[in-house]
Amino acid sequence: RMGARVSGRQGGRLAPLAIDGGRLGGIDYATPVASAQVKSAVLLAGLFAEGATSVREPAQSRDHTERMLGAFGAAVERDGLTTRLRGPATLRAARVRVPDDFSSAAYFIVAASLVPGSEVEIRDVGLNSTRTGLLDILKMMGARVEVGDLREESGEPVGTVAVRASRLHGTVIGGDLVPRAIDELPVLAVAACFAEGETVIRDAAELRVKESDRVEALARELGRLGARIEPRPDGMVIAGGRPVQGGRVTSGGDHRIAMSLAVAGLCAAGSDTVEDPDNIETS
User: What angle do helix axes 185-193 and 133-140 make, rounded to 10 degrees?
Assistant: First the structure.
C-alpha cells in the first residue's frame, strides 16, 4: 500500500520474503490488534515516504518508537490512539541512555512478591506506562509495590521499583491492561497460582501466537507442578492456593515460559528443574 514490492510464497504472505523499495507514499493504517511492532514498522517506513503516515490502534500499545523518534527530531503527533508523522523526515543525532528493561525486571518483582521475607529494589528501570501493567495488576492482587525517583531520560520515564513479599489474592485481568502487560502475563499466571482465590486472564488471545502457545504451555507445565489452569481461547482461569510441588518442566523453546517456570520453582515445595533454558540468554 505504501509502494514497496514484496514477493514471497503465497503472494508475498509467507517467508522467505524479498522486498524491493522505491518511492513510498504515506498511508492511513488501522492495525487489527494493538501491536507496537507493526506500528513501529509502518512509522519507520513513513519517515521515508512522501506525505503523512498515520497508524490507528484499537488499544494503546508500547510507544518507545514514537518517543525515540521525537528525541531524534521527528515531528510525531499523537491524538488518542492515532500516531502520525510526515515524511520524508530528517533525523538528528542525539545522546541516548537506554533504561533497564522492565520486562526483565518483572520476574524479580514477582519473585519478591511471592517468596516470604523478600525485599527487592530495582533502580534505573524503564517505567513507560505502556509497559507497566504488571505493577497495576500486582497492586490489584495485594502486592506491596512502590515506585520512586521517577524522572525522564531520553524521553522515557525511569525510576526505582521497590517490592516486598505479601499475601496475594486473585483478580480479573483483561481489557486495556492486557497490551500493557502481554509479555508479563506468563509470570503473572505463576503469581496467580500462589494467590488465594481465582484469577481470570481474558482478552489475551495474542498469548497463543507468541514464541509458543503460552496459554497451553502454562497450563501444561504448571499443571505438572500441581497447579490447576483452565485454558480458554483468549486466556485462562487459574485456581490459586493449591499446593505447587517441585518437578521437571520444559520451556518449549520460549524464554518467557522458562523464566516464569524458574520463578514457580522458587516457591514450589521441592526442587524445580527447567529443561531447555538456553533461550533465556536471548531475552
Answer: 10
Quote the mean pLDDT of the chain: 95
Q: Which amino acid is at 1?
A: R
pLDDT in tens, 176-230: 899 999 999 999 999 999 999 999 999 999 999 999 999 999 999 999 999 999 9
Q: Annotated catalytic sites, by residue?
A: 183
Q: Do residues 64 and 23 touch, judged by C-beta distance below 8 A?
A: no
Secondary structure of 125-175 in HEC code, one letter for each residue: EECCCCCCHHHHHHHHCCCEEEEEEEEEECCEEEEEEEEECCCCECCEECH
Below-70 pLDDT ranges, the chain: none
List, for residues 8-31, the tens digit of each pLDDT value: 998 888 899 998 878 999 999 999
Q: Is 97 part of any domain?
A: no
For residue 198, the cross-strand partners are: 239
3-state SS assignment for residue 263: helix
Burial profile 200-233: b = 16 or more Cβ within 10 angstroms, e = fewer: bbbebebbbebebbbbebbbbbbeebebebebee
Shared domain check, 130 and 158: yes
Tell which of 87, 114, 149 closes a domain: 87
pTM of the model: 0.88
- In the structure grid, which three cell numbers stand for residue 136, read together? 497495576
Same domain membership, residue 106 and residue 69: no
Backbone angles phi, psi at 89, to 5 degrees: -115, 145
